[in-house]
Amino acid sequence: MEMIAIERWKRTFKYMRLFLWLAFVASLLCTLTIAGLIIFAKWQGPPPLAVPQSTIFYAEDGTKIGENHYGGKRYWVKLSDMSEHAIHATIAVEDRKFFDHYGFDLKRIAGAIVADIKAMKKVQGASTITQQYARNLFLSYEKTWWRKIQEALYTIRLEANYDKRDILEGYLNTIYYGHGVYGIEAAANFYFGKSARELTVAEAAMLAGIPKGPSYYSPLVDLERAKKRQRIVLHSMVEAKFLSKEEAKQAANEPLYFSNGQQMKTKTIAPYFQDAVKHMLKTVLGLDEETIEMGGLRVYTTLDVNMQAIAEEKIKETIHSQSNIQVALVAMEPKTGEVKALVGGRDYEKSPFNRAIQAERQPGSTFKPFLYYGALQHGFTPSTQLRSEPTTFTLEDGSTYTPRNFNNYYANDTITLAQAIALSDNVYAVKTHLLLGQDKLVTIAKQLGITSKLKQVPSLALGTSPVKVIDMARAYSIIANGGKKVEPVFIKKVTNYEGKVLYEQRPSDEQILDPALAFVTTHLMTGMFDPTLNDYASVTGQSIIPRMTRPYAGKSGTTKTDSWMIGFTPQLVTAVWTGYDRDETIDRTDEKQYAKHIWVSFMEDSLRERKVATFEPPEGVIGIYVDPHNGKLATTTCPTKRLSYYVVGTEPTDYCKDHPTEKKKKKKQKEKDSWLKRLFDWF
How far apart are the first and last CA of the chain? Predict the structure, then answer.
């Protein structure tokens, strides 16, 4: 018997040793597997956390002016910008041991398996927050073993490479809350019309209950069912020691006010401007459509919402509601090129075609400042005189061209360059154009940023080649800022959802015009608002002078189909075009004045709170008083005098002799009196 007992003990020991060996091997394999998975996770590196998110556009003051979401509203906010109630509610109901496990809750998994076996169906989930985040980021929702394996591998990579708070932040920014809304920030806005940082306990508990079944537990679908789910979440928060029973009870009884998604909808501000911004994101930054639409970008633009509102208001007030005429407006800072307001039409919903950027229209006389800058380069001065009279020009090819002035008004005498631009004399302009050579104007226009094709013809001086409104605003900005190159700037900065700067605007300091000549050109353009230059006709800005409260420079332009007004102060350039889309002629007198009236009312209201700025001459420019009708140095007997600016060395040296001196006046009067006395005595 003793031998049998010994044999039994030996066999038992043998099996125990085999069991221990197998346990050791299994433990070793398990350890090696875990170590291998960790090494694999580290070797693979941190997986990207980017997900499709709404791109948001901001005005210069931080106002949200629009967003792209295409069926799914998504915003990324930092954990520190979320209500702690939202964080606690989510952890309590989804993964109470989130900060204690390494991606998998083994005890919870075992419990779920037992529950499923007892019910003979899947009744309990065991996915941790990390597992759910991995699924949200990278995987489809198909129920296959391969998907489960991938989810496990991504979970390990997340846990091995990211801090717990990063994972929690990502999860709360990507979970689905129903109605096309992703993430806690979008959910707070959609359901309650507030940000995630403002959520109360009751609101946070309501939202935390939705992801289990977004279409089932949404309070907008079934409020009673959602309230039951809310109470479950509150109970979980009590068990997790995030709330006391009394606090949970108060939250459960707190009335909730839902926005029904209405407050989430932001009124679209400046839609034509936003289209231009998206175009710049493609052409300047080289971003693709998908990144622009759902890349989670934060686009900080140059838009001034106040100026934009003024522009839209003035257009609506000025243009008769029954008129079919269209409009475009661009307001730009001349020193930086920043576009502050842009209107591309009267109604974006009816016509998204952006007339400020896409359309090309004849600029008329607004093209003349480019011509006269070229003339100043080639020896002209504000006092240079040419005859204004009906003239037919014979060209090199034998053809003829006869320009006409507005209403066929001509001086039939010599006029100065200063008068020619103020009165918009077409004969003077064509003579100057032909004297310089027809290629000169094209060269200057291209230098100033005109991108349209220009024909080298005599009528180009009168603005017969179509151009873009945005290009004209840029060209005038270069003149206004003293000749420094600017491009239209719509975007100041672009960041991704993490706040990393992808693009930031850098100003240019390139000088492309002579600053002295640019200033003289600017001062010539103040003439359209100076009645002292009236001669055979009124200055072209006569109708709006009474509404002006500060110095402006500018030029208007009119063709049969187009009406323009472009003008500026040192702070702001604004270009306005009005006309018909289908080349209908502008026949009504009031419609011919729309551009000027929109321009002056916009400029006055936009600059109302700004200090009045004057045009300060740069070095190399001298200001002297001249007789505005002949451009010569004014004398004490000249009835009108005008301060005019010249490049040093080009100022006039001859004095005006058109008006007699006081001494000669008295002598003539005495002679007249004496002659009358003799005549009286004779009778």
Answer: 184
Q: Is the dihedral of CA 196, 200, 202, 203 positive or negative?
A: negative
Sorting pLDDT into bands at 50, 70 and 90, what band is 164? confident
177 with 324, same domain: the answer is: no
User: Other C-beta atoms within 10 Å of 68: how many?
Assistant: 18
pLDDT single digits (tens) 237-296 = 999 999 999 999 999 999 998 886 544 444 579 999 999 998 899 888 888 766 776 677
Residue 587 pLDDT exceeds 90: no
| CA contacts within 13 A on the Cβ side of 540 | 36
Residue 417 in any domain: the answer is yes
Residue 582 to residues 16, 497, 585, Cα–Cα distance (Å): 97, 44, 9
Provide the pLDDT for residue 37.
Answer: 47
Torsion from C-alpha of 96, 102, 108, 112, nearest 10 degrees: 120
Provide the 10 A C-beta neighbour count for residue 661: 12
Give me 312's structure tokens.
Answer: 């839209």
- Provide CB contacts within 8 A for 41, sequence distance 6+: 153, 156, 157, 159, 160, 161
Stretch 21-34: mean pLDDT: 56
What is the domain-level CATH number for residue 205?
1.10.3810.10
Examine residue 672 and state whether it is found in any structural domain, yes or no. Answer: no
User: What is the helix, strand, coil percentage profile of the chain, to 5?
Assistant: 45, 15, 40
pLDDT in tens, 69-107: 554 567 788 899 999 999 999 988 888 878 777 655 555
Rounded Cα–Cα distance for residues 534 and 416 (Å): 12
Q: Tokens standing for 389?
A: 């009279």
What is the pLDDT, as a whole number, of residue 14? 59
Q: How far is CA 25 from CA 106, 133, 292, in A?
A: 21, 34, 54
Same domain, 22 and 84: no
Whole-prediction pTM value?
0.74
DSSP H/E element including 436: helix 426-436
Structure-token match 């009279």, residue found: 389
DSSP code for 39: H
Going by C-alpha positions, the residue among 151, 374, 353, 197 that lies closest to residue 271 is: 353
Q: Which residues are catalytic?
A: 94, 365
The C-alpha atoms of residue 400 and residue 82 are separated, in whole angstroms, by: 75
Cα–Cα distance for residue pair 281/503, rounded to 1 Å: 10
Provide mean pLDDT across the span 385-401.
89
Q: 250, exposed or middle or buried, with CB in 10 Å at 0-12, 13-18, 19+? A: middle
Domain ranges, residue 472: 51-69+269-609
Quick: pLDDT tens for 422-472: 999 999 999 999 999 999 999 999 999 999 999 999 999 999 999 999 999
Q: How far apart are CA 391 and CA 416, in angstroms?
A: 17
Average confidence score pLDDT of the chain? 84
What CA–CA distances, in Å, run from 308 to 327, 398, 595? 14, 51, 16
